[in-house]
Design a protein that fits this description.
InterPro entries: ZMYND10, Znf_MYND. It comes from Octodon degus (Degu). It holds the Pfam family zf-MYND. It is found in: Apical cell membrane; Cytoplasm, Cytoskeleton, Microtubule organizing center, Centrosome, Centriolar satellite; Dynein axonemal particle. About 0% of the residues have low confidence. By secondary structure, this protein is mainly α. It is globular, with a radius of gyration of 23 Å. It has two domains: about 325 residues, no CATH class; about 35 residues, no CATH class. It has a two-stranded antiparallel sheet.
């Protein structure tokens, strides 16, 4: 095993085979926690494989063992938990946990799964292996993008503001809201990879995307609001290259002549996972929240210590450094930078002093870059 390997081939094979979907009421249980750790390991290994270009066995294993539908079902289950159970937990007056880490793990679970799907959906065979659950995944992406458009049209992306007197549960709610923004952008990437496979998509999936959800119009709205940019302060993402292809696809779609509708009988598939879970748990969400409060999210100090030890083994520092994106560097001194030139948005600086010292060299290029941006 090399320094940048987290899992041995045989170990990854075993973890993928063990993947299964959990119901919303099972979130946070012992079996679920073990799978969450396994998913994090698979997630980090998949990113490492893609980063160092040494083949992608995780993606191949997920396709071989037919686990993409399992991941989609697990993704929708935790999404439903966050919408139906998490708000109930936050409103319970008698629930004041000393440690919110177990709940945070469930909230973070959605981000882990969508991140893994984003990594592996780059490959066409992964999209094809989703089978009927691709309809459910399209619906999921539509919900996330609708939420993203709704929030950005009312003031932009969430800010990392914290109340001084906030309770642990209020802080957790704030973290969940910030995480939701990142999840929505991951869903956008997954949807983009699905559109790359348009030639092999079923008629039901295409109908769901174009007729039911009218995704082209939603994507146009998303492009107009550009939620990945801040109007004030630093830009969230330095670049979003996928959107150039998306813009070209939308322009092409506007020029394509639509075929006349036919009266032939068509049997259309519909997504089942969300409806089934909602039907099976209708009227039970309050009871599920209270049960999890007593048996899942109130662990003893010893249980928390054991869980912390397991996570310390899962998150190796050397792996995290390899997975984390490289921080921008100051154009003048080379230190890590957190601010960029407000005019051209090209050069990064660690402080005001470095920007002033570098202006003599950067000034002319800055003016030209700013003029070019306005001309576009």
């Amino acid at each position: 095993m090399t320094d940048l390997e987290l899992l041995l081939p045989g170990e990854a094979d075993k973890l993928v085979q063990q993947l299964r979907s959990f119901l919303p009421q099972e979130m946070g249980s012992e079996g679920w926690s073990q799978q969450h750790e396994n998913l994090e390991k698979l997630n980090m290994q998949a990113i490492l494989d893609a980063t160092v270009s040494q083949g992608e066995p995780i993606q191949e294993l997920l396709v071989t063992y037919g686990k993409i539908p399992t991941l989609v079902e697990e993704l929708i289950a935790v999404e439903m938990w966050k919408l139906k159970v998490f708000p109930v937990l936050c409103k319970l007056e008698d629930f004041k946990p000393l440690n919110t880490f177990p709940i945070y793990m469930v909230v973070h679970h959605e981000a882990s799964i969508i991140n893994l799907l984003e990594t592996v959906f780059f490959h066409k065979e992964v999209c094809e292996s989703a089978d009927d659950t691709l309809l459910d995944l399209v619906d999921y992406c539509h919900r996330k993008l609708t939420l993203l458009v709704g929030k950005t049209s009312h003031g932009g992306p969430p800010k990392e503001d914290r109340l001084q007197d906030s309770t642990p549960m209020q802080e957790l709610q704030n973290q969940a809201e910030l995480m939701e923004f990142d999840i929505s952008l991951k869903a956008l990437s997954v949807l983009r990879y699905i559109t790359d496979c348009v030639d092999s998509l079923s008629l039901s999936t295409l109908s769901r995307m174009l007729s039911t959800h009218n995704l082209p119009c939603l994507l146009v709205e998303l492009l107009e609001h550009s939620p990945w940019k801040r109007q004030e302060g630093d830009t969230l993402l330095d670049q979003f290259p996928n959107l150039a292809d998306l813009k070209g696809f939308l322009a092409h779609l506007a020029l394509v002549e639509t075929q006349p509708s036919k009266k032939d009988l068509v049997l259309e598939q519909i997504p089942e996972i969300w409806r089934r879970m909602e039907r099976e748990n209708k009227g039970k969400w309050q009871a599920i929240a209270k049960h999890q409060l007593q048996h899942v999210f109130s662990p003893s100090e010893q249980d928390l210590r054991l869980q912390a030890q397991r996570w310390a083994k899962t998150y190796r520092l050397d792996v995290l450094e390899a997975v984390a994106p490289e921080r921008p560097r100051c154009a003048y001194c080379g230190a890590e930078a957190s601010k960029r030139c407000s005019r051209c948005q090209k050069e990064w600086y660690c402080c005001r002093e470095c920007q002033v010292k570098h202006w003599e060299k950067h000034g002319k290029a800055c003016v030209l870059a700013a003029q070019g941006s306005r001309a576009k």
